[in-house]
Design brief:
Length: about 150
């Protein structure tokens, strides 16, 4: 995080960590985190494309029939894989709807303060995403929260 955090902190657009990385930063014990998911605006994603162009995985694209769309890019940063989603949208019964992060908090990780959704907000997002892997994480997060 120490190499990418200054670029993220300097973004003129809002951004947050979501997914497994955010859950692990909260303290949820997970076996792995294959990549760090960064949610931002399309402008923020474009800025990171310029800053991280040397790390960009150009041949990687999300599945075209996926339930998500965004200004997407994937990077092989020195610390590990990073996926950036600008203006992320979720396909729902009502069509494409923006994914909104309503409540965030800052947590310290690897010496860096990072914005991420609160545990309750992450639970809402995982349920909204609705994929089997997201629902499994939601159940795990809910059990972890109930255990205190």
């Amino acid at each position: 995080m120490r190499r990418v955090a200054p670029d993220l902190a300097a973004l003129p657009a809002p951004w947050t960590i979501i997914g497994s990385g955010a859950l692990m930063i909260l303290g949820l014990p997970l076996d792995d985190c294959p990549d760090l998911d960064v949610l931002t605006t399309a402008g923020g994603a474009e800025r990171l494309e310029l800053l991280w162009q040397a790390w960009r995985e150009r041949g990687y694209t999300p599945e075209p029939e996926a339930a998500f769309r965004s200004r997407f890019s994937r990077y092989s940063a020195p610390e590990g894989a990073i996926e950036v989603m600008g203006d992320l949208q979720l396909r729902t019964g009502a069509g494409w709807t923006p994914v909104e992060i309503r409540v965030t908090e800052r947590r310290r990780f690897a010496g860096v303060d990072l914005p991420l959704p609160t545990a309750a907000e992450q639970l809402r997002i995982l349920r909204e995403f609705g994929r089997p892997k997201d629902l499994a994480k939601a159940a795990r997060l809910e059990a972890w929260l109930a255990a205190g």
